[in-house]
Amino acid sequence: MSTTSTQPPEQSQLSNALARDRLGVAAVVFFVMSAAAPLTVVAGVVPTGLAVTGLTGISIAFVAVALVLAIFAVGYVAMARHIANAGAFYAYISQGLGRPLGVGASWVALLAYNMFQIASYGGFGAIAAPLFSDWFGVDIQWWILALICWALTAVLGVLDVAVNGKVLATLLVAEIVVVIAFSFADIFSPNFSASSAPLDPGTLVGAGSGALLVMAVTGFVGFEQSVVFSEESRDPRRTVSRATYLSVAIIAVLYGFAAWAMISAAGDDVVGRAANEGPDLFFNVASDQLGGAALHIGHALFLTSLIAAMISFHNIISRYTFSLGREGVLPRAFGKTVPGTGAPKNGSLAQSALGLIAIVVYAVNGWDPLVNMFFWGGTAGGLGVLILVSITSIAVIGYFLKHPEGEDFWHRIGAPVLSTILLIIMTYLAIDNIATLLGVEPGSAPAIVVPLSFAVLFAAGFVWALILRSSNPQVYAGIGLGARSATATGGGGFSAALASTEESK
Amino acid sequence: MATSPQLPLADDLFLTAHDSVKGKCQLSPATLGLGMAAALIGELVLWRRLDLVDGKIQIIDDRPTGDPAATAVLDQLLREGHHRAIRDWISFLATGIAVDLVERRLSRAGLVQRQEKRGLFGSKVSFVPSDSMIAGWPATRIRTFIGRGEMLDVPDLVLAGLILATGLDQHVFVTLDARGRSQLFDQLKRRLPAMLHELVSQTEAAVGDAVMARRA
Q: Is the domain defined by A22-499 classed in CATH 3.60.40.10?
């Protein structure tokens, strides 16, 4: 571009250059959906959930959660327009409810996201092992397969290689096509009899409703990332909100329909079949209509879906860690990148270390990778996200009470209050039903450890923020502003140099 | 020990960003762009053409500086009078404009040369220091001053700040011992003028932003 050409003043080169990369609704929807991994949810979470909880009302749960999240999104997207670092729940919570709660939330989010990541390793191992034996006649332990894709994720993470956007989009479209095709095959299968169980609203108030809701929330995780593009979208007032509603609606309809078709075609004892057949249930019920080739394509996409989700999630976690490192909420070392690539290396390494430990612990103890790692990890992460969404919903009210400018009543108060009430009920039910969700006895170790670990981390983050407030007020002031803030703190080497002469390496 | 000649700020940063053995750029293209953009704005501040106040650029003197690269940026600032946010200007100049201007200035001075690398998917043109020694000049100068316990001048303080902001310190300052490091940081803290401090902070934030948005 020439800088000496004469332009009429109304034709701003600067505005044009900065507007060029702006995203439209479709691009944002794609980004959100790619983290959602449809096959992982429909073929992985739903059948495993049927087996573990014995609950069938999953379709109505998807719809209910979608409605609540859509109401939540009204205030969430509105607030994103006013704050920096949108896309991170703790940024909302820091500004709406105060920094101590924000730091607590940031640690809870880190745990929840890591649970998803670790769940995907277990899921891949458990799902790939029988497929490899079927395809290649080799029996490989699940943890060896999990370690292979862990290593792939770790290497790509440190090098900061993202899965190419076009590859992701292609995989996503293929996955959606497979989900739809298999669901229609279900409808035309001889065993099909339209079941009302998946759509029974009664299940949402009955026993185990909290478990169903958490399973459904798990399917929506990633929708919160839409607001990351608030500053980069074509029309800040419309693009992101439309994309968010559209994503939530697509996910609800797709997952709800697929789950309904599968349960309807599985016969009377769907829970028993889910327990016996596991994730294959989704493929089995449609297989007589579609034949072997479709089955293989479906299986292959199932695995690529998991790998793509794994790599995307790993990148989200390492960037999240980077952002916290830059703020000084986590050690500064996490705020460094590899200069040549911009890769947030230390965050990536830390995530990989955690993943390795989890795989080894599960392998050594002989715990089940599908139920205890994939399903527990996924749904526990879903519970964490539900808790975060609930607190964020309160934070939106808090923020707009202090800064009412520029938004109308519905965006500031109406929708946020409504969603807060609904979310608090959901969170209460979820924690109350945690034993059902995990398929264990009430009061047994997993049912206590999962909510307790969130509570402990939340409290620890809260205390850490209070320590920062007295020991390092500059860092404290920057909490929630993210890597993009240029305030006194919130930076890398330069701010670290200014903040403390001893600490920086 | 003789110190090497001091070049304009952006030139010094460009050279520092390149490996002193192979001449390879050690920053990602996006980060290099942000560094060059900030350094050119910094040059205009040093020329007393601009003030940076509250995140905004104010033109205090619209006369050309006599340097084509800095003047080109000043002209652009004059033409686009309604845009004043420092952050927007760093982002805008980082789209290739700043790197281009600096590369041209350096190649006129004979300090960099065009290099065409043929790869699998077409060829890539880049400018690399014409002599691998040259790339090390600015960093060596800063280290020498610090080693002797002397004061850096303001342009070198900004350079050191931008080295930290772009993450180049992981290459450039690793050889500094703890004492040298704390000396340097101390000088930055006490002697970097407020406007340039703001410029470096804004640059660092822009670099962090690029990492978060996967543009880095």
A: no
